[in-house]
Design brief:
binds phosphoenolpyruvate, about 260 residues, 12 helices, 8-stranded parallel β-barrel, alpha/beta, TIM Barrel
Amino acid sequence: MLRKKLIAGNWKMNKTPADGAALVAELVTAAGKQTDVDVVVCPPFTALDAVGKALDGSTIKLGAQNLHHEASGAFTGEVSAPMLRALFATHVIIGHSERRSLFGETDAFINQKVLAALKNQLKPILCVGETLAEREAGTTLKVVQTQLEAGLQGVSKEQAATLIVAYEPVWAIGTGKVATTDQAQEVHAYVRGLLTKLFTEPVAQRVRILYGGSMKPANAPELLTQKDIDGGLIGGASLEARSFLELIRAAAAAK
Ligand code: PEP
């Protein structure tokens, strides 16, 4: 199979180091040796160290939820790619819609982060997606195209092969409203087409495109069997071992 499914948990601003380590201990016991599905957990910065230690020796990878594009300097409150690497993070979520809407992150700023992550051998999980107003105005594909092309400026073909894209319709995040499989597959196929234009067909065929937005054990099997849906970026359902493990199993079954 060309693309192994990937299930990534975005814990957002939840869990202390102790809570995170306890959750991950359950995940490691149940799924820490499996290799059918790639699994990544993305705790808040403060829990990265404890969670990383709890993951040690397992196949589950560690990701961060954000980074600053500079390596060091006078950027109060920020965390850089080399700092994340020092904690053994391998992935980083970039351009989540909450960062865009609540913290004013622009496509140009997000692009700098993508480049910094790649330069430091961190795999970016670049999030794109339309708001409800944009979907209703019929501009979904245009919005996604702009976010993707601007976010990936200056990325080489070689670098693009390690990239992960998450299509997250903003109206489906944390709302319980999930995109229909047709809606999701349409955008995923479109994203793959854009990646083909940007980086060639073989590269586009290697990039994993995750769906995010109220993915739960009940709706995951149908989403995960769509041709261009290569996994999920999971918010709410990643905060409990039971639901997250069910999503890993759903991804394994959808191979
Ligand atoms: C997310 O925040 O990336 C997300 C998909 O959240 P939820 O699964 O809770 O909708």
